[in-house]
C-alpha cells in the first residue's frame, strides 16, 4: 500500500487503523464533562481512566487530596470509560438523597444476574426495588428488632466470654469482633447458631467468603477463581459474561454457594411452618410474604432489568437474597467498626472511663441492659458515631440517575453515576471542627458539629 509515496505493508496499515480506532473508542468519553461545563479530573489512558491511580494510592487519600482542587466539591472522573460525578458537597448530597431521591433510587448494575446475588435490595431497580422495599420495611420496625434482641444478647455473652479468656493479654481484636459479627448475622438473618468465635471451620463461614471474593481455602484454584471473579464483575461486559456463562460458572457466588444458602432457606421455612411459635430470624419473619412464582397469576409477573418478580409478594429467592445482604453489607462493616471502636477506646482511656461510668448507671446488677433502656446510652451512641466518622468503612456511596435532572446547576443525564465521597465529607473542616480529633461530644444534641 502506497501512502504519501511510502510503500507500507498492508498489515502495518491495518494495525495502525485498529490501534487508532481502539484509542479513539477508549478515550471517546473523556470529553463528557467538559462538553457539559462540569469541572473534571482529566483522564488520558484509554479504557482505564483513573483506575491506575486507584490501584496504587488509597482512595481515601485520593478523595481528600483531589477535593481540595475543586472549591465546589463536585467534579467528574472516569472509571474506565464510564463518567462518574464525584460529590463531597453536603448540600448537593441532600438534594440527591432527600429532595430528589426518587430520581436516584438505583445503583450501578454490577451484578446483573437473576440470582440471590443480583436480587437483593441494593441491586434491584425501579418498580422492583420499590415493591421489595415496601414488603421488607415492616421487618425492621422497633417491635421486630426487639424480638431479635435476646438473640443478639446471646452472641454478646459469647463475645464477652471469649474476651475474658484472654486474661487481659494483647490480642488482635479484629478476630473477635469478626467472629461476633458473623454470629449475629447467622442467627438474626438465617436462624443459625454457628459460634464462629469458637469454631472457624463452619460451612456458613466457608461459603460467606464468596461475598468478599476471598478464596475459600488455600488451593491455587480457589485463589484464581477469586481473582477472576473480581475481574469479571468490574471489567467484563454483560455480553461477554453471557457468552462465558455457556461454558463456565461465572455467577457472582458460584453454584456451590448458592445451593448451600438455598438449602438453608428451605430448612428454615420448613421449621417455621412446623413450629407453633414463630422463629425470630429475618427469613422466618418474611415467610408469610413468600409466594411461588410458578403458581401466582401470570399477570402479576414482572421483569425488570432481566429479573423476574411478582406484585403478589416475595419469591424465595427475594428473601434469601435480602438475608444474604446481611453478610455482604453487614459483616465487614460491623466487624471493622467494632474493631476501630475498641482501638479508639484503648488510646483514649479518659473517654473509655467516662463511657464505662455512664453505662454502669444504666445496666442492672448483672451487667445487662433491657431493650427499653438502650435509648439511655446516648454517650455510647456518640462514641460509635464518632468512630464511624473517623473510620468510615463505606468510604463512598453510589447512585445512578433514573432521569435527566439538574442538581445545583450540574446537569446529570439518565444513567450517569454519582458517587458521594463519605471520607472527604467526614474530614472536611467546613463541616467539622478539628476533624482529626476524636470527640464524641460533637454529636450531643445541644452541640451539633
Automatic annotation (TrEMBL):
Gene3D superfamilies: Cytochrome P450 (1.10.630.10)
Homology family: Belongs to the cytochrome P450 family.
UniProt GO MF annotations: heme binding; iron ion binding; oxidoreductase activity, acting on paired donors, with incorporation or reduction of molecular oxygen; steroid hydroxylase activity
Keyword Oxidoreductase assigned: yes
Name assigned to this protein: CYP3A4
Organism: Bugula neritina
Needed co-factor(s): heme
Highest taxon of source: Eukaryota
Parts of the chain that traverse the membrane: 12-33
InterPro entries to which the protein is assigned, alphabetical: Cyt_P450, Cyt_P450_E_grp-I, Cyt_P450_sf, Cytochrome_P450_3A
The keyword Iron is annotated on this UniProt entry: yes
Keywords: Heme, Iron, Membrane, Metal-binding, Monooxygenase, Oxidoreductase, Transmembrane, Transmembrane helix
